[in-house]
Specification:
43% of the residues lie in helices and 7% in strands. It is built from seven helices and four strands, in the order αααββααααββ. The chain has a two-stranded antiparallel sheet with strand order 1-2.
């Protein structure tokens, strides 16, 4: 199953807001952080607000933030709320008479795909936004560079970019550059999760 861009942006937005610990932030900040379309993100944020995941405050001093605690935001609920169609194949939904599947009565593929979808959603239902934020914190504690820092480093290296290379502190507090051989590089390769 492939999630839509809307769901991808929704999950990224929630992760970003979860790291803000209740502080208001702007849609422009989220879009700039991930390098994604602000116009598209406006629609996603509106829907996240309508569905009760985030609070949106208009006007001067406004912004967006989580409406619930990260532990109360279940990843499966976000996916269900943002995906318009969870049908893996056309025969899952209502069929038009002129396009009806001829195998429906004898096909076991539909049952297999329903089982797969239930397993996929059960996995997502077993995790909250807090779990995802905790995973990122665990990676930082292990000295691994978070993906967003790697992405900033890549953007900084693009021709015409004026951004400084991303650096983070590893578990010992030493500064680690986003790429090997830069100032602050510890010369150690981050541990990969087992």
């Amino acid at each position: 199953m492939r999630l839509t861009l809307k769901t991808d942006y929704a999950l990224r937005t929630l992760m970003y807001l979860g790291q803000q610990r209740g502080r208001l932030t702007s849609i422009a900040s989220v879009a700039a952080f991930y390098g994604i379309s602000e116009n598209h993100l406006v629609k996603v944020v509106h829907e996240l607000g309508r569905k009760g995941f985030i609070e949106t405050l208009r006007g001067k001093g406004g912004g967006i933030r989580l409406l619930r605690q990260p532990s109360d935001i279940i990843i499966g609920d976000v996916v269900r709320a943002m995906e318009d169609d969870m049908a893996l194949v056309a025969c899952f939904g209502p069929q038009e008479p002129d396009r009806a599947c001829l195998l429906t009565d004898s096909c076991s593929l539909q049952d297999l795909l329903h089982q797969a979808l239930r397993a996929f959603m059960a996995t997502l239902d077993a995790h909250s936004l807090a779990d995802m934020l905790g995973h990122a914190a665990a990676q930082r504690a292990e000295g691994m560079i978070p993906l967003q820092d790697v992405m900033r480093e890549i953007q900084a290296q693009r021709p015409g970019s004026t951004s400084a290379p991303a650096t983070v502190a590893d578990a010992s507090g030493s500064t680690v550059a986003g790429a090997a051989g830069q100032p602050g590089d510890t010369g150690q390769t981050p541990r990969q999760p087992s």
